[in-house]
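Hi all, posting the design record for the shared folder.

TITLE: backbone redesign
STEP: 1 of 1
STRUCTURE INPUT:
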């Protein structure tokens, strides 16, 4: 009862201070619980999606004919293969696909579009209830990606129309695809009824195959993959596994959850600083009462317990409210998860994990309060009874001498002088303004960076105006040569670089082997930014992506052994030069066949790449024509040439090749991530402004109480209330400017490193912010200054 009365009286006496501390603890608890809940939601929904779809553990994509009997015989003899199937896909060029009522085909889409029938054994395509999708004749299931990007809905039309044929379908369901859900995966599957699939197959000749396996022990995927590669089975395409599917599905929402949790931890630091300031202010105000309690013999532990009780009550109630508020917030921010994966029953984890996260915030509050309350041990009963408050008078010094005041309005000058002379007192407010600026600027800088065309370098791609991607097929070599020859003769093209990605085998020192996707060509035409070293220039040089270099434990100057399966002694014909006046030959030419060769390659560069699971490499040697994965031409247009018109021309001319400009490539690939970051940036800005308003309110209320005598003296000297307000406003804005300056420095250094650490798991370990000066250094500071000024007045 005594503690309850003390807490009630304290709250009544210091409503503003208690409310501000309560708000910060609530916000920190809310965000950390929501972030934890988002991770639980993501994990449970992803697990349910993979379980309902019976996702394959290993998939080998292949373009060309498949000897199914050989694959079946090998699978039956492999103890790790539990089940297998070969899924056929009809490859549709975007120039023949029309969505809804649009008269414009999807020729600008970066997606490889395939039409399939539902699988029988596993790798099921699911409806929006995560049930195996059954499609009736005349109907079609459309990937969620196209519903989100193009606004497709139930009842809309999808038309495939090419030379001599036209097929029209009605959208009956949206499709969740465990393999190809996210935007970062540039392949999408539309689902047809088996009869409709057969009719379309008769008109469209292009095929691709997914050779899929379910394993008895998913933990031995690497062993199974190596065995498949060594067996000489079909593998003209990328090999992917269960873990990569999970990583790609979790990227966008995982980044949002991580940012929310980091934001909550920053708020926890601010809440701890506010709590410290509140305790110290209480010590100042209750100095005499604490001395009396000590004088009558009350133990120090009991005195601290009285004060600790109210902070336990404050922190506990704020953490509880934050936890309860996080439950509906988690449902709101997990909308993208619900659309792409569906909601899964989370059991007790969905409630327990956020509760434990909020409880951790409460524990930090209690520990922080206990640490600060140790100052009570320094209070002397004798000094307290003599009414010594412990306040320190402003230190005399030469900070802004009075003669300088002639250069300013006297009230502005006194406000600046007070802020600098008592900077030790105002340091906490400056420190929190620094955090408020950092909270807003770091997400804003990263959003500007990921929207910038230069972000393409983090995808292992040199910056160019356009790129032409050819879908893998048995005729790709001839078609690619034709594309390169046409581009070389086009006067609208200023420079270009043909690039071919093919599979090689790495031979480790132990004799073990693994596959490596190597892009070959001239990398001096559209150079990358390298973390270390430089681009490869000779045939015995190679550049590795950051994650590949880390996994292989290679650095600049080390060597690796590559084996070209099927063997190619040397290129027997070269493609045209990579650009007018540019040295070097493109690595797009074919090669003679021979025995397999081991090539010793020296690592000359390490670059960043978030595509293909972050594991790629680049070299100038001839490609491995036995296992080509992709063929691309990057090009810059001559000055004055319209990019959109040229893209349309090439889309028609090179059909079914995919022609995109890099701006569209970025937005279509990272659209979901950008959308998530927009919400996070808006939320961080709101939180930053709220922090500035709340802390300014708390600090100035306490400062005015502390300065009561000083204010009275200045009034007696003739200063008006308006003059005093200008002084305090000047002090607050001066501290804010210092805080914003420190926050900008933090966001451009440590904040940039934090973002790099987060994206390092995807393959980009050194993000360099692209800063929008108008937003970062004009609009955002003005917004914070307006909030602080209004609060101060």
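Okay, here is what came back for every position:
SEQUENCE:
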């Amino acid at each position: 009862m005594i503690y309850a009365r003390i807490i009630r009286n304290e709250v009544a006496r210091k409503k503003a201070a208690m409310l501000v501390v309560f708000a910060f603890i609530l916000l920190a608890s809310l965000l950390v619980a929501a972030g934890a809940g988002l991770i639980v939601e993501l994990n449970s929904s992803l697990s349910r999606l993979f379980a309902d779809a019976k996702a394959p553990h290993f998939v080998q994509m292949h373009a060309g004919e498949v000897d199914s009997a050989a694959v079946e015989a090998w699978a039956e003899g492999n103890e790790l293969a539990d089940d297998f199937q070969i899924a056929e896909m009809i490859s549709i060029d975007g120039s023949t696909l029309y969505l809804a009522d649009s008269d414009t085909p999807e020729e600008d889409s970066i997606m490889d579009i395939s039409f399939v029938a539902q699988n029988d054994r596993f790798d099921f395509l699911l409806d929006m209830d995560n049930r195996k999708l059954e499609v009736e004749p005349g109907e079609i299931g459309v990937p969620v990606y196209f519903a989100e990007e193009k606004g497709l809905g139930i009842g809309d039309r999808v038309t495939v129309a090419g030379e001599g044929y036209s097929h029209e379908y009605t959208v009956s369901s949206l499709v969740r695809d465990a393999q190809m859900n996210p935007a970062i995966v540039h392949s999408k599957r539309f689902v047809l009824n088996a009869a409709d699939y057969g009719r379309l197959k008769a008109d469209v000749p292009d095929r691709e195959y997914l050779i899929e396996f379910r394993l008895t022990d998913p933990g031995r995927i690497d062993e199974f993959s190596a065995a498949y590669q060594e067996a000489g089975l079909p593998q003209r395409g990328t090999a992917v596994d269960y873990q990569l599917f999970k990583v790609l599905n979790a990227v966008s929402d995982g980044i949002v959850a991580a940012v929310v949790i980091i934001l909550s931890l920053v708020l926890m630091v601010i809440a701890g600083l506010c709590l410290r300031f509140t305790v110290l202010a209480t010590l100042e105000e209750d100095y005499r009462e604490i001395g009396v309690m000590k004088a009558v013999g009350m133990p120090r532990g009991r005195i601290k317990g009285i004060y600790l009780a109210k902070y336990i009550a404050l922190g506990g109630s704020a953490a509880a409210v934050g936890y309860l508020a996080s439950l509906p917030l988690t449902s709101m921010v997990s909308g993208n998860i619900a659309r792409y994966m569906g909601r899964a029953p989370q059991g007790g984890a969905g409630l327990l994990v956020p509760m434990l996260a909020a409880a951790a915030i409460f524990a930090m509050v209690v520990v922080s309060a206990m640490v600060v309350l140790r100052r009570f041990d320094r209070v002397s009963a004798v000094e307290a009874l003599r009414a010594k408050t412990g306040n320190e008078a402003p230190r005399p010094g030469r900070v802004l001498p009075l003669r300088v005041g002639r250069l300013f309005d006297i009230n502005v000058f006194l406000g600046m002088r007070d802020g600098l002379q008592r900077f030790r007192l105002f340091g906490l407010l400056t420190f929190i303004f620094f955090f408020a600026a950092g909270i807003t600027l770091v997400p804003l800088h990263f959003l500007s960076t990921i929207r910038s065309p230069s972000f393409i370098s983090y995808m292992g791609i040199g910056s160019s105006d356009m790129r032409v991607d050819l879908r893998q097929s048995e005729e790709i070599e001839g078609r690619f040569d034709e594309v390169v020859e046409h581009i070389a003769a086009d006067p609208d093209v200023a420079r270009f670089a043909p690039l071919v990605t093919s599979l090689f085998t790495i031979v480790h020192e132990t004799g073990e082997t693994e596959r490596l996707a190597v892009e070959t060509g001239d990398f001096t035409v559209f150079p990358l930014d390298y973390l270390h070293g430089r681009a490869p220039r000779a045939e015995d040089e190679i550049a590795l992506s950051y994650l590949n270099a880390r996994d292989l434990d290679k650095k600049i100057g080390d060597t690796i052994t590559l084996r070209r399966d099927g063997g190619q002694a040397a290129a027997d014909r070269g493609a045209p030069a990579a650009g007018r006046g540019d040295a070097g030959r493109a690595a797009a030419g074919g090669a003679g066949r021979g025995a397999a060769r081991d090539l010793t390659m020296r690592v000359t560069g390490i670059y960043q790449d978030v595509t293909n699971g972050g594991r790629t490499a680049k070299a100038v040697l001839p490609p491995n024509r036995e296992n080509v994965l992709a063929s691309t031409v990057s090009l810059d247009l001559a000055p004055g040439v319209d990019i959109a018109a040229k893209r349309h021309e090439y889309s028609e001319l090179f059909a079914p090749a995919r022609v995109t400009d890099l701006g569209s490539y970025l937005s279509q690939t990272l659209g979901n991530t950008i959308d998530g970051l927009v919400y996070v940036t808006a939320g961080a800005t709101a939180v930053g402004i709220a922090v500035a308003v709340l802390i300014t309110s708390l600090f100035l209320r306490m400062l005015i109480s502390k300065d009561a005598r000083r204010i009275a003296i200045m009034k007696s000297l003739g200063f008006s209330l308006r003059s005093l307000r200008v002084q305090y406003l000047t002090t607050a804005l001066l501290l804010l400017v210092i805080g914003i300056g420190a926050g900008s420095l933090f966001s451009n250094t440590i904040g940039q490193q934090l973002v790099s650490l987060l994206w390092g798991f995807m393959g980009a370990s050194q993000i360099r912010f692209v800063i929008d000066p108008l937003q970062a250094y004009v609009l955002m500071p003005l917004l914070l200054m307006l909030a602080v000024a209004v609060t101060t007045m």
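COMMENT: The chain has a mean pLDDT of 81.
Let me know if anyone wants the other runs.
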